[in-house]
Structures are given as C-alpha cells and as structure tokens.
Amino acid sequence: MSIFNAFNASSSALTAQRLRMDVISSNIANANTTRATVNENGEYEPYRRKMVQIEPTDKSFRTFLQKATSTTDNKATGVKVTEIVEDEEPFKLVYNPSHPDANEAGYVQMPNVDPLKEMVDLMSATRSYEANITAINASKSMLMKALEIGK
Amino acid sequence: MNLFSGTINTLQQSLNYSSIKNQTIASNIANVDTPNYKAKDVVFKDVLQNELSSSIAAKRTHPRHLSFDLDQRLSYQTVQRNNTTFNHNGNNVDIDKEMAELAQNQIYYQSLVDRINGKFNSLQTVIKGGR
C-alpha cells in the first residue's frame, strides 16, 4: 500500500481530462473542415467529430486477481482514456453551390460537429479538472499534516 | 501498566480509516465522467456484520496459527453504491457530496493528528518530569 495512491488516482484523472480538452479543441478547430480524409473512392470527406472513451483503471485481470486474493488491498481507482472514437452521426448538408466541395445539386457536406455541444463538453472537462486539483490539494495537506505527528 | 494507552491505538486506526477514505473520495472524483462507474464508500463494519463474520472461527491448536479472518483488526471496509444512477451513462458519483466529504475528511484527519500530538506531548511532559 502506498501513501500516494490518492495522488496517483487524481493525477490520472487530470491527464484524462486534459486529453478530453485536447480532443474538444480539435473538434472546434475543425468545425468547418470539408477535406479531412480521402475515402476509398478518392473523394474528400469532411472531418468527423471525435470523442474520448474513459474507463476506470481497475478493469484489468491483475486488479481482479488482487482483489480476490487479498482482503485488505483498497487501492484507489484511477481513470484512463482507452480509445478516441469517431462520431458516426451523418454529416450536415448545407446548400452552397459556390463551394469547391459542393456536389451536383449544390449541397456541401459539413462536419458533424455541433459547437454548442463542444462548448458544454469543454466546460464539463474544465470543472472535472478543477475538482481533481482540489482533491490533490486535500491529499497533499493531509500528508503534510501527517509529517507533523510527533513533532 | 500500559504506558501507551488505548487512545493512541484508536487514533491510529482512525487515521488509517481517514486516509483510506481520502483515497476512495479521490477515486470517485477521478471517475466523475466515467460511464458505468459506481461510487465507492468507506463504512464502519456494523456489529451484526462482525458477529456474522466471526461466527465461523478457525480451530487454532497453536497460538501462531492464522485465523480465517485476516483483516480482523480493520474496523472499516470499502463498499460500492450499486443501487443508484445519477447520469445517463450509468455513473452515480454525486460530485457535491464528494467535495463536501473531502473537506470534512481533511478536517477530521487534521483533528486526529492534533489529538495524537497532544497525547505524545503529555507523555513527553511526564518523561521530562514536568520540566
């Protein structure tokens, strides 16, 4: 048992939330990108919205085995990003015949990014980050206080 | 005569409890956005549970034999709150509750350290003969 378990759990969450913010920034930055990838027909495809998948770190076989064999191990559960997945929602069609990527009918496929959704996600990530900072500060003050025992 | 009275042991156990509680709260806050994560909680084992678990005792023919219950000294355990859902994604971390408990636990820990220090200080006074 390490005294820094709580620290490790909180800092893993800081990493995860920061990555989440990075992905959101990328989504907002590419809200109007119509030429992100080339599909198998050689045509340009717009940017697809990306999302992070987060999971507690105690889902591995090792932790289950540890839990089954010992009764005292209360390791703190951190969090990790397992995958960055793409949103399979259809692209938005916008009528804009003068656009270089418009089809014969004059419609352009725009990325399936909703700026509103991204802003709300960004706020949520920021708040979670702040909550974890508070938790780290609490753990730190407790450890500093423990050093005072017997002084 | 017991020089280190039971108080120090009690305080020590409470400090252990408090630090485990801090770890648990930290994991809950870390997983506040994780789908299907269920919040964990540290609770004191109740008397009934203790009686139930100690009803089957290992027959020990030698004092150094181990009993069935290895964590007998621990008076608390970590449990999962499985019966509620707060969000669409199956998560049930109540962030306000966790933050409040975090603050509370911090003060609790500091007061325990204060008390154990007071205990040590009075011992020191006795050892030095009041000088």
Describe this structure in words.
The complex is a heterodimer of chains A (151) and B (131). Chain A has 151 residues and is an alpha+beta fold. Chain A is 44% helix and 18% strand. Chain A is built from three helices and six strands. Chain A has helices spanning 5-29, 61-69, 115-146; strands spanning 37-38, 44-45, 50-56, 79-86, 92-95, 107-110. In chain A, the strands form three sheets. A two-stranded antiparallel sheet of chain A has the order 1-2. In chain A, strands 3-4 form a two-stranded antiparallel sheet. Chain A has a two-stranded antiparallel ribbon with strand order 5-6. Chain A is elongated, with a radius of gyration of 23 Å. The two termini of chain A are 25 Å apart. The mean pLDDT of chain A is 89. Chain B is mainly alpha-helical and 131 residues long. Chain B has one domain. Chain B is flat. Chain B starts with 5 loop residues before the first helix and ends with a helix. Classes of the chains: A alpha+beta (151), B mainly alpha (131). Chain A binds chain B through residues 3, 5-7, 9-10, 12-13, 16-17, 20, 54-56, 71-72, 74-79, 124-125, 128, 131-132, 134-135, 138-139, 141-142, 145-146, 148-151, and chain B through 15, 18-20, 22-27, 29-35, 37, 40, 70-71, 74, 78, 95, 98-99, 102-103, 105-106, 109-110, 113, 116-117, 120.
Q: What oligomeric state do these chains adopt?
A: heterodimer
Q: Count the beta strands of chain B.
A: 2
Low-confidence spans of chain B: pLDDT under 50, at least 5 residues?
none
What portion of the residues of chain A fall into strands of 2 or more residues? 15-25%
Largest sheet of chain A: 2 strands, antiparallel
The chain-level structural class of chain A is alpha+beta
Relative helix content of chain A: 40-55%
The helix count of chain A comes to 3
Q: Overall pLDDT of chain B, averaged? A: 82
Mean pLDDT over all positions of chain A: 89
The percent range for helix content of chain B is 40-55%
Tell me the overall shape of chain B.
Answer: flat
Strand order of the largest sheet of chain A: 1-2
Strand content of chain B: 5-15%
Q: Got a strand count of chain A?
A: 6
Low-confidence runs of chain A: none
Radius of gyration of chain A in whole Å, from Cα? 23 Å
